[in-house]
Structure to design on (137 residues):
């Protein structure tokens, strides 16, 4: 009776399979198969999707720390001719005005916080609509 086999896919640097062979693999065929799998280039769209997901993840992480940093990060990552970039410019301006008015005492904290929440929600909507074409190359 033949043992059931499991297929495990691990993405590695191209030469890592060779390095791992000596320590972990029972047969040279396993290492060669892993080496060949890791040598096959990913499709362009798959790479773009990974980049897009990384941008979205980083922007969301930054939003938890600082809206201004998240806005600046996204402005640096997006094509300047996109509508999403224009929306970020507008949100950046709105954020800066609300921050300035709060510092000068022209608005109270609750009003500023409501504006910051609206700005954060708008950023999340931009992120939901982003596609790889919006990213700088």
């Amino acid at each position: 009776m033949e043992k059931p086999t499991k297929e495990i896919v691990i993405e590695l640097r191209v030469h890592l399979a060779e390095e791992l062979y000596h320590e972990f693999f029972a047969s040279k065929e396993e290492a060669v198969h892993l080496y060949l799998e890791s040598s096959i280039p990913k499709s362009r769209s798959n790479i773009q999707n990974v980049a897009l997901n990384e941008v979205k993840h980083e922007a969301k992480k930054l939003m938890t720390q600082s809206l201004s940093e998240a806005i600046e990060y996204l402005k640096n990552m997006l094509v300047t001719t996109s509508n999403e970039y224009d929306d970020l410019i507008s949100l950046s301006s709105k954020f800066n005005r609300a921050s300035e008015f709060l510092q000068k005492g022209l608005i109270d904290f609750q009003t500023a916080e409501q504006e910051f929440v609206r700005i954060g929600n708008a950023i999340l909507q931009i992120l939901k609509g982003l596609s790889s074409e919006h990213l700088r190359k």
Q: What stands out?
A: The chain has two domains: 1-40, 44-134. The two ends are 53 Å apart (CA to CA).
